[in-house]
Amino acid sequence: MNKMLEYGILCWGKDEKKLMDELYAFLAPMNRTFSKTSNKGMLEARLPYVYKHFYWNLNKEKQVYVELYPNKDVEGKMKFPSEEVGWVMFLT
Question: Would you say which domain of life the source belongs to (predicted)?
Fold first, then answer.
């Protein structure tokens, strides 16, 4: 049975570069990284939320999948109702 978790990250939506720099630094010692995607099919799979892009990482060895996407989509819909949550981390 897979567990799925979603965490709201307290930051501003515009903090994308800073957030990703920190996550890349965290993953670097493990030789891991995130992929940024704007692939139409992958974005459509996140409907009803409409994103320009999101980040993902799959670690097959540990069986962990992670996504990072903005809390507020391009249409203004929010996953978490707080403006203090700029980004969302989804894990399975």
Answer: Bacteria
Give yes or no for residue 1 having a pLDDT over 70: no
34 contact partners, CB below 8 Å, separation of at least 6: 20, 23, 24, 27, 55, 56, 57, 66, 68
CA distance 64 to 42: 18
Task: Report yes or no on whether pTM surpasses 0.85.
Answer: yes
Reduced to 3 states (helix: H, G, I; strand: E, B; else coil), residue 26 is helix
* Separation of first and last alpha carbons in the chain: 10
> What's the chain's average pLDDT?
95
Q: What is the average pLDDT across 20-44? A: 95
3 state SS of 23: helix
How many domains are there within the chain?
A: 1
